[in-house]
Amino acid sequence: MDVRPAGITGAWVRRCVAATLRAERAGGRAVSVVVTDDRRMRALNRKHLRHDTTTDVVSFEAGEAGGGAYLGDVVVCAPYARRIAASLGIDLKEELARYLVHGTLHLLGYDDLKEPQRSRMHRRQEAVLARALGRRPRGWSDGRT
User: Fold this and answer.
1) What does the alpha-carbon distance between residue 88 and residue 70 come to, in Å, rounded to a whole number?
2) Which of 74, 77, 110, 136 has its CA 20 to 30 A from that of 57?
3) What is the pTM of this model?
4) How many whole angstroms separate alpha carbon 140 and alpha carbon 132?
5) Between the CA of residue 91 and those of 2, 34, 44, 82, 98, what are the distances in Å?
6) What does CATH list as the number for 10-133?
């Protein structure tokens, strides 16, 4: 089952991830992306992070198995993005792009569990997102992905 919203193509996803990798001087690295639904995201979140709820994005580092070039997997939840975008009155593509950037930054070593790392990551996320979108993003506020 394909849960990608209309207009979200593989090429668009690759551009968002590539913009993040370029911004972080990590060109030549690879990331796998999965766009999923609430049910699957909740199952992943429960199994791997022990949170029994759906969420926006999760990342899984490849570690040694990646051999250096492959960073890992980014899983984004399309229905979650749709709800957040609607509640903020922003474009769905912006919200999904935010999740792709955020997840890729995690694979590159960024952390958002505690301050000041959280603020650093969110500032970087929005700067990279602006480059990927070609404009200043409208939907970000402190404290959310």
Assistant:
1) 34
2) 136
3) 0.89
4) 15
5) 20, 20, 26, 9, 11
6) 3.40.390.30
What single-letter DSSP state applies at residue 65? G
Residue type, 111: D
- Identify the H or E element spanning 13: helix 10-23
Query: Is the bond leading into 116 cis (omega within 30 degrees of zero)?
Result: yes
HSE at residue 54, side-chain half, CA atoms within 13 A, is: 15
Residue 32 CB-half CA count within 13 A = 9
Token representation of residue 94: 């912006």
Provide the 3-class DSSP secondary structure of residue 144.
Answer: coil
**Residue ranges of domains in the chain:** 10-133
Q: Digits of tens for pLDDT over the chain (145 positions)?
A: 456 677 789 999 999 999 999 999 998 999 999 999 999 999 999 999 999 999 999 999 997 766 679 999 999 999 999 999 999 999 999 999 999 999 999 999 999 999 999 999 999 999 999 988 887 777 655 444 4
How many whole angstroms separate alpha carbon 69 and alpha carbon 27? Answer: 9
